[in-house]
Amino acid sequence: MLIKHDQKGFTLIELLIGMTLGMIAISALLSFVGFGIGVNGKTISKSKLAEETELILDVMSSEIKRSGFTAATIAMIEDPIANASVFRNSIVIGEHPSEAANSCILFSYDYNNNGLLDNLGINENFGFRHKNNQIQIRQDAALCDQDDSWENISNPLEIVVQSLFFTAAQVTIDGITRTQITIDIVTRSRATNQMSNSVSRNFLVRNYD
Asked: Which residues contact 13 (CB under 8 A, 6 or more apart)?
């Protein structure tokens, strides 16, 4: 004997409601994933900007710290009048006419350890400046206001350097007077114009007299 069972399925309205709820859930999930990707992208951009800024500061500070170094130190100690250092008082702070004040620093040191300030064959005049939203390094003893012989060391595709400011001050530590340099820099991400990074760093130039 065949027994008849009632079979019930979903009505059209129930299917439509189920599909609508499913689409809402999927949309919410995609929105959450998109938000996470956006936050992660901003975090990466911020970290990259900070890394680029710190790298630039490392290059500038490590070079400026060498200001005034000379291999003729022993001769200077034995007879400071007859053997005055040619690298003495070489730090000069200025700016390019199109940039803010104190955004350029010039200095020199004994790169090849011969006790002489060489201008031929090897460059012993160094410097950094802010120009066209980038950090540039000095070449061929160029001055702050010259347009030639300066090259970018910051990456124009990655960051915009909004400002650069150098300060030199005399500080006395344990009875010894040294020159302290402070670098203030503000950079902005090229990819995210609203993201900026402001850093200040100071250090002693121990060789400078």
From this structure: none
For residue 13, what pLDDT is reported?
Answer: 67
**Token output for 7:** 């079979």
What DSSP string runs through the chain?
A: -----------HHHHHHHHHHHHHHHHHHHHHHHHHHHHHHHHHHHHHHHHHHHHHHHHHHHHHTTTT--TTHHHHHH-TTTT--TTTT--EEE--TTS-TT-EEEEE--TTSSSS---SSS--EEEEEEETTEEEEE-TT--TT-SSSEEE-S-TTTEEEEEEEEEEEEEEETTEEEEEEEEEEEEEESS-TT-EEEEEEEEEETT--
- Residue-wise pLDDT for 58-93, tens only, equals 999 999 998 888 765 555 555 555 555 666 778 999
Q: Where are the domains of the chain?
A: 42-205
Taking the model in full, what pTM does it have? 0.73
> Using CA atoms, how far apart are residues 92 and 141, in angstroms rounded to an integer?
13
